[in-house]
From TrEMBL:
Gene3D superfamilies: Immunoglobulins
A Pfam family the protein falls into: V-set
Domain of life where this protein originates: Eukaryota
Signal peptide: 1-18
UniProt keywords, alphabetically: Signal
Protein name in the entry: Ig-like domain-containing protein
SMART domains in UniProt: IG, IGc2, IGv
Keyword Nucleotide-binding recorded: no
Domain annotation Ig-like: ranges: 15-116
């Protein structure tokens, strides 16, 4: 991997107690600095706008990026954006930077228990 390429990962934990199952793709993505990348999260049923996106790096607490499907959280750079189409949600990073490397995951906030 060249120094100008980052690995971005997504992961999904499947709890047994919830009716809402989230499927996140792709599982791993390699992208050049300055490039664009998108991750998709599909809910097994309608959760309205009840989905958030998080970024996590080794040794750090998860960082909220997007809440309510498409609302940029305070202090998050505008290169991050969220979209919704029915039960499908997309996180897009436009112009990937070094600090964007790490794990990305979605969390549904519509029904208890919350699921990733």
């Amino acid at each position: 991997m060249s120094p100008s390429t980052l690995m971005l990962c997504v992961f999904l934990i499947w709890p047994v107690a919830s009716d809402v199952v989230l499927t996140q793709t792709p599982g791993m993505e390699s992208v050049r600095l300055g490039g664009d990348v998108s991750f998709k999260c599909s809910a097994s049923k309608d959760i309205g706008w009840g989905l958030s996106w998080y970024h996590m790096t080794h040794g750090q607490a998860p960082r909220l990026l997007i809440k309510l499907g498409n609302e940029l959280y305070t202090g998050v750079p505008s290169r991050f954006s969220g979209q919704r189409s029915g039960s499908d949600f997309t996180l897009t990073i436009t112009g990937v930077q070094d600090e964007d490397a790490g794990h990305y995951y979605c969390l549904q906030t519509r029904e208890a228990p919350l699921t990733q």
